[in-house]
Amino acid sequence: MGADYILGTHRQELERLRLQHDLWRPLCQAAWGRAGFGLGQRVLDLGAGPGFAALDLARLVGPEGRVLALERSAVYVACGQELAAAAGLGQLELRQHDLLQEPWPRGPRDQPEAGFDRAWCRWLAMFLPDLDPWLQGLEQVITPGGQLLVHEYGHWDSFGLHPHGQAIARFGAACQQSFRAAGGDPDVNRRLPSLLAARGWRIEALQPLPVLGVAGSMAWAWMEDFVAVYGPQLIALGLWSAADQAEAEAEISTSRHDSGSFWMAPTLLELRATRWAP
Ligand SMILES: C[S@@+](CC[C@H](N)C(=O)[O-])C[C@H]1O[C@@H](n2cnc3c(N)ncnc32)[C@H](O)[C@@H]1O
Question: What pLDDT score was predicted for residue 109?
């Protein structure tokens, strides 16, 4: 993966991430509730993008808490900083940080900044070619007894538009190929629970979060938007063609007029684990 994020950091992708968070917000909020996120806590957001979830987390921990949102893209960090300032959320710090270069944030005197009660990770681990340094980093900064909450995919093959999405099925396969070619693993949450357990974390919860969208729903808009934004990137990578994209768009139009047609998202897995207390 290059210096930036494989899907790009242009305006269209930023807006896609905003819509994505609007769609997933109720599921996030329920998950944060299950994981006991709350007032006064110190929370780490890993690979925060433009900070849409981090803003919600900052409201959740309140002015007595702290959210440190780490993100590699300077463009996203600047956007998130503007949003945080406009919302008056002084408890939220967005910091440019590449978790591949350095798996943990630094505090004063260059030590790892420790003492986080909770860490939130959504759609970051799937882009990391090597998970071990990152897991080691988490152990440096999450307080013993603190929790890690992960929303990453576990079954990308479930992505599809039914029943008219033959090109969309090929699109899903090309997406997975692109993530793998960049060193990532689209189904990373098949491996993470076992990796954490082997390091002594207690696995508290593991559950699938399926999303389905019929025409006119937010989930439909999100998946249609994904094809529009990522199709050109796949073409640039040589994994897709303009003809494939036109075919996919035609299938989406046909499907829009079939009230029995629906999208399935790649199945997300929620993973919650507690750091061992020595
Ligand atoms: C799909 S977005 C998800 C953003 C956010 N977590 C959310 O759920 O809305 C993935 C983000 O991970 C960031 N990212 C990828 N690799 C990273 C790394 N090594 N260090 C920090 N951020 C990274 C990308 O720049 C991008 O903003």
Answer: 84
